[in-house]
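Input C-alpha cells:
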C-alpha cells in the first residue's frame, strides 16, 4: 500500500523523507516521489520503480533544498505505475502539493465537475482531484485549514493525506479517514508517516491520528482539529519497541529474520497471559458470564490471518465446544450475514489496517455483536474499532509475507480457546496444566526446528523449477496446508493449492502427474491413517511426496519421498511447529529463484484498500 512521510523542521527535508520512505518500502510500491518547498516554490521529483531511483535522481535528496516536504511511495490503484501517476500531485500553479494513501471513491464525479470548472488533469489518479479541489477552495479565499475541512466533506472513501501550501511554507497539513497515519514529535522538527518505523530514527513520541482528524505541523508545534476545524486535544504515546526491530540485523531478508524471531514472539504473546497455572486474559475485560453466554464465534480475517482462524475453528469447537464460523472478511461484508444475538465476532489482523477486516468489525458492531480484535499493531484502526483487543506481541513485521505475526495469532487463539473452555467447565486443572506445559515448550521446539534450516534449504533448491504444487491435510493439518501453500506461492510465484486431503479425489487428483510435488501434512493422530491413504493415492500417480509429520510417525517414510519431522506437542498446537519448515521451504525456494523475498510482486504489507 502507499506510504506517506512528511517533515518540517530545522534539517534538510529530502534526506529525511527518503529515509522515512525506505522504512515504508515493506508496504509494497511501484513508484515514489517527494515535494519540498525550497524557499520560493514547491520543487518535486518522481521516479517509477524502486526508491533507489528517486534517491539517484535527487543525489540522495541533496538537489532538493528545503526544510519542509512530503514524500510518497505509490502502490498503483487508479492508473498504471508511471511518473505521471506517482505522487505528489499538484494544482496547476504548483502552489499546493498532495500525497495520498487510500482510494477516493467519488473521484470520477469530482473530476468531471472540476474539468467543467476549467481544471486540467495530468494523471489518471484519484488523488489529483484533491490537489485541484484544495486549489478551488483556496482561490475562494479560504485558509488552508478550511480548505482541508471542505475537501474532507466532499471526498468519499479512504484517505490519509499530506499537504503543503507554498503560501504557508512552514506548515504541513495531514488528515486521515480509514487509512493509517501517525504524527511524530521530533527534537528538531515534526513528522507525519503511514507507520511508526518511518519516524523511529527521529522520535519515539507519536500521536495516532483518528478518523476524520486533521493535524497541522510546524517546526515546533503540532495542533489537531476535527472535521469541522475545531481544535482537539490528543495525547502522545511512547513507542517502546526498538528501532533495531525494524532493521534486518545481519539477516539477508526480513522474512528469515522474522522466522528466527518466532520463538520470542510466541514467548512474548504467551508469558504475560499465563498466571498460576492458568490463562489470564483480564486485559479483555470479559466476565465469566459473558464468556458463558457466547452461542457462536464468528472469525473474520484475510489471507494468513484467515488461516489462523481456520485452525482456531478446530481448536475452539473441540476444546471449548463453541461452534465457530470462519469468514473471509471481504466475503462477510458483502453478503447479508446472519449473526446470532450472543455471537462473538473475532477479527484477526497483523496490521490492524486491513480494509475488509475493519469493515467486517464495523458491521458486526452495528449489528450489536461483541467484537474482539487479535491485532499486532498497537493503536491500529482495527484495534480501535473493536470493543476488545488482544495484542499479539510480535513487534513490527516488515516482510510482506507474514511469519511471526501468524505464529503469535495462533498462540493468542489457543489462549482464548483455553480460557473459554475453562470458564465453561470443560478443562480440568490437570488438563489446563498440561496444555500450558506444552504451550511453554513451543518456543524451544521452534528453535530446534530452525536448527534444521540448512536441510530444508537443500531440499528447497531441488524444487525451484516446480510448476505446480499441491498441499493436503485433514483437520488442523488442512489449515497448516493452506498456510504452507500460501507461503510458497506468494513469494516463489509457483502455482500451489491446498486441499482438504479427502477432497482431492473429487477432481483435483487428475492434475497429479509424474513428479508433481505434493506436500502432505499429517500431524493429527485421529486422521493420520486417512491422510496416509491420500498420500498413497498421489504417490501411485507419480507424485513426489513431501510429508510433514510428528516424531513417532517414522512409518511415513514408506510412502513419502522426503519427511520434515516436528517435535510432539498437544494436537491442538501442532500448527505452531509444522508451519516452521513450510515457512522455511517457501523462503528458500524464493531465495533459490533469486526473487525479492520481502517484496513479492503485486503484494502489499498492509491492504488498506479493498
Ligand atoms: C500472507 C499475508 C497476508 C495477510 C493478509 C491479512 O503472507 O501476509 O495474507 O495475512 O493480507 O493482513 P493482516 O493480518 O494485516 O490483516
Amino acid at each position: 500500500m502507499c506510504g506517506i512521510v512528511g517533515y518540517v523542521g530545522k534539517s534538510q527535508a529530502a534526506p529525511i523523507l527518503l529515509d522515512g520512505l525506505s522504512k515504508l518500502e515493506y508496504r509494497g510500491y511501484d513508484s515514489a516521489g517527494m515535494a519540498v518547498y525550497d524557499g520560493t516554490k514547491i520543487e518535486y521529483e518522481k521516479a517509477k520503480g524502486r526508491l533507489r531511483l528517486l534517491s539517484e535522481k535527487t543525489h540522495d535528496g541533496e538537489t532538493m533544498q528545503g526544510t519542509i516536504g512530503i514524500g510518497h511511495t505509490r502502490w498503483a490503484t487508479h492508473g498504471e505505475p508511471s511518473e505521471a501517476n506517482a505522487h505528489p500531485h499538484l494544482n496547476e500553479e504548483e502552489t499546493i502539493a498532495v500525497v495520498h494513501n487510500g482510494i477516493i471513491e467519488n473521484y470520477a464525479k469530482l473530476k468531471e465537475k472540476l474539468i467543467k470548472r476549467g481544471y486540467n488533469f495530468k494523471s489518471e489518479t484519484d488523488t489529483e482531484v484533491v490537489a485541484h479541489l484544495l486549489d478551488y477552495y483556496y482561490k475562494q479565499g479560504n485558509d488552508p485549514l478550511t480548505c482541508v475541512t471542505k475537501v474532507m466533506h466532499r471526498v468519499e472513501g479512504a484517505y490519509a493525506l499530506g499537504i503543503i501550501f507554498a503560501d504557508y511554507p512552514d506548515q504541513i497539513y495531514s488528515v486521515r479517514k480509514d487509512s493509517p497515519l501517525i504524527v511524530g514529535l521530533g527534537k528538531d522538527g515534526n513528522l507525519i508517516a503511514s507507520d511508526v518505523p518511518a519516524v523511529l530514527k527521529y522520535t519515539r513520541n507519536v500521536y495516532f491520528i483518528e478518523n476524520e482528524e486533521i493535524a497541522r505541523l510546524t517546526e515546533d508545534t503540532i495542533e489537531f482539529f476535527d472535521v469541522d476545524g475545531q481544535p482537539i486535544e490528543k495525547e502522545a504515546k511512547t513507542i517502546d519497541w526498538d528501532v533495531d526491530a525494524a532493521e534486518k540485523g545481519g539477516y539477508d531478508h526480513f522474512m528469515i529474520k522474522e522466522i528466527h524471531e518466532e520463538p520470542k514472539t510466541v514467548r512474548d504473546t504467551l508469558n504475560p497471559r499465563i498466571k498460576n497455572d492458568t490463562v489470564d486474559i483480564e486485559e479483555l475485560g470479559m466476565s465469566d458470564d459473558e464468556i458463558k453466554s457466547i452461542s457462536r464465534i464468528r472469525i473474520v480475517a484475510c489471507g494468513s490471518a484467515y488461516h489462523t482462524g481456520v485452525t482456531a475453528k478446530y481448536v475452539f469447537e473441540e476444546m471449548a465446544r463453541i461452534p465457530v464460523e470462519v469468514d473471509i472478511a471481504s466475503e462477510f461484508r458483502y453478503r447479508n450475514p446472519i449473526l446470532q444475538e450472543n455471537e462473538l465476532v473475532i477479527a484477526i489482523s497483523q496490521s490492524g489496517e486491513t480494509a475488509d477486516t475493519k469493515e467486517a468489525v464495523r458491521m458486526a458492531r452495528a449489528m450489536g455483536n461483541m467484537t474482539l480484535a487479535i491485532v499486532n499493531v498497537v493503536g491500529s484502526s482495527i484495534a480501535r474499532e473493536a470493543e476488545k483487543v488482544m495484542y499479539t506481541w510480535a513487534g513490527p513485521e516488515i516482510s510482506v509475507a507474514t511469519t511471526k505475526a501468524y505464529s503469535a495469532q495462533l498462540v493468542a487463539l489457543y489462549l482464548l480457546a483455553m480460557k473459554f473452555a475453562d470458564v465453561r467447565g470443560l478443562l480440568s486443572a490437570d488438563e489446563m496444566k498440561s496444555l500450558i506445559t506444552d504451550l511453554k515448550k513451543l518456543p524451544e521446539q521452534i528453535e530446534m526446528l530452525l536448527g534444521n534450516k540448512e536441510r530444508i534449504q537443500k531440499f528447497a533448491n531441488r524444487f525451484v523449477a516446480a510448476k505446480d504444487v499441491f498441499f493436503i491435510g485433514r483437520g488442523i493439518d488442512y489449515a497448516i496446508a493452506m498456510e504452507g501453500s500460501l507461503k510458497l506461492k506468494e513469494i516463489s510465484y509457483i502455482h500451489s493449492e491446498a486441499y482438504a486431503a479427502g477432497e482431492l479425489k473429487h477432481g483435483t487428483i487428475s492434475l497429479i502427474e509424474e513428479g508433481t510435488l505434493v506436500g502432505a501434512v499429517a500431524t493429527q493422530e485421529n486422521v493420520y491413517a486417512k491422510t496416509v491413504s491420500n498420500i498413497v493415492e498421489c504417490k501411485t500417480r507419480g507424485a513426489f511426496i513431501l510429508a510433514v509429520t510428528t516424531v513417532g510417525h517414522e512409518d511415513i517414510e514408506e510412502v513419502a519421498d522426503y519427511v520434515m519431522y516436528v517435535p510432539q506437542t498437544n494436537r491442538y498446537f501442532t500448527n505452531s511447529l509444522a508451519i516452521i519448515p513450510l515457512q522455511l521451504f517457501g523462503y528458500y525456494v524464493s531465495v533459490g529463484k533469486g526473487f525479492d523475498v520481502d517484496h513479492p510482486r503485486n503484494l502489499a504489507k498492509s491492504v488498506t484498500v479493498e
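The mean pLDDT is 94. The longest helix spans residues 429-450.
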